């Protein structure tokens, strides 16, 4: 099996593989600025493909470089021959070489990705809102967004994203903010001196209104945007909202005890633990005394960070360095949900992903985060 970088000349083969795997394909170029890919050949014929999009994902308020893996497709004739596993092993090396210590994917075959160290670490959610559950009162004063608003709109989003573990920063070249202007509804709440106080993006289809982002810098702006959705009453019974800001559905609407939510889980892989820890924000560290926990990282597929490591908190900073006793054993699949704050060490121990006799409490004090880690982008 040969694994090589994807090129523009492979576009037709990529579409063929994805058409067979998923039943549909996109005309979008598989390779573009901010996106690269790998292709596996068996007997000289393309047999499997994946793409990697460059993102930065917020954890602890800091953007950590992350490779988003998508479009993994294997030709039926090549399945069961270790092609996908080999492609993922090469991907881990590629991610490290490109300075991406984290990787995220949406798994259609979780067992495959878990075998290579990815594990569930957050959610991607849509919630259906009956119109009568939206708050009533004066709607926000909005206007259609223009190209001149894009930088301010992006700044408004980043202000929110930096406070929600898991959201990406939507920076170029991985994401082109101008793409929002192709949507049916893009409205902004203007502020002073070109500032955007909030915005709403949505598409109308036969099923209803799909709201991609409802973001506000403050409570009044958020409530005003929610009330603006009430203008669809009579045309629609409900709207679907992608959860970008968890405060919007969780605290500002009148959801009843039962409601409809569609959840997709995303899996996180820590590719390079020392680099990931160095890039992450650790707000809790400032309040901790200098301390350390001795780890043994069990990771057959990323040997560069496997073995005995010490996680050290010193003067409010956190680092990982070689050495220690290896008292707390962390398996590769434990690293993602711990790093994101999705699971604490008690859950990881019960799942068999953390063992040993050492005291792991420092890990929980550092990574414990309010709320569920979230993504609001699909790739």
TrEMBL record:
Pfam families: Acetyltransf_9, SCP2_2. This is N-acetyltransferase domain-containing protein. Signal peptide: none annotated. It comes from Saccharothrix mutabilis subsp. mutabilis. InterPro entries: Acetyltransferase_Eis (IPR051554), Acyl_CoA_acyltransferase (IPR016181), Eis_dom (IPR025559), GNAT_dom (IPR000182), SCP2_sterol-bd_dom_sf (IPR036527). PANTHER family: N-ACETYLTRANSFERASE EIS. PROSITE patterns: GNAT. Residues 1-137 form the N-acetyltransferase domain. SUPFAM superfamilies: Acyl-CoA N-acyltransferases (Nat), SCP-like. Transmembrane segments: none annotated. Gene3D superfamilies: 3.40.630.30, SCP2 sterol-binding domain.
